[in-house]
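Lab notebook, bench 4. Still working through the backlog of constructs that have no structural model yet. Next entry is a single chain of 284 residues. Request: give me the structure tokens for it.
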Amino acid sequence: MPTQKVDKIFKPIERFLHSESTAGIVLLISAVIAMIWANTAWHDSYHHLWEYNISIYVGDYGINKTLHEWINDGLMAMFFFVIGLELKREIMAGELSDMGKAMLPLIAAFGGMVLPALIYFIFNPTGSTSYGWGIPMATDIAFALGIMSLLGKRVPLSLKIFLTALAIADDIGAVLVIAFFYTSNISMISLGLGGLFLAVLLGANYLGVRSTLFYGIVGIGGLWLAFLMSGVHATIAGVLAAFAIPARTKIDEEKFIQILEDQLQKFHAYHPMMLLCLSPPNTR
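Model written out:
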């Protein structure tokens, strides 16, 4: 097949995949399909799909989860890992580097969790329904981020950063509520191992380790797996792993600038005739 015909097929696909609004488009289409599917005569097949078991075993050890659980504990952990990286960049050298700006999404997330819970508790002060106060605390920030991406660059960067920080704070708060008030069995041994793996990641960051393979193995095979087995939502591992990834450059910027300035001074110190001798000969 000629190259031009191949480009006509794959170039639009490549542009679509690299577009900022791609995630929002895919999310919106998936939501519409799911709503239609769940409200038709085939709704049973829709619900059974999420109950499909997927197992990964190495010898006698393994994980057996439903498709729904793999999405919640796996793909959502990856999602929060990515936005955790973006948030870390903004905290270190971006919009959230100022403490005042960083506190705003934290306060907003706190209010967005506490106020709905209080309203629920006012209408359900007693009885079995009073235990459901944690349900309205959850917000689908991930869906909001996907919808916002549809607007692309028309959305202010500050709003994207604010919503991203709000998503992180809200998710951590919701997971802590589930862990302390709705989880009957938390493995402290697994949590301790998770803390150990996190310490390894932070130590490697401090020592200057830049190996993607190392952070992938320790982050997924160690930190994520430990949180998954602990009973605490594994998305927390995604956020913690993101904050353990190195953000500093290998080269010290101030030292590099100083070296350049020293070399520039040496260059200016050369006599014009010496520069002429050092220049390459004209080969024309």
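Notes after review: The longest strand covers residues 53-58. The chain has a mean pLDDT of 79. Flag for follow-up if needed.
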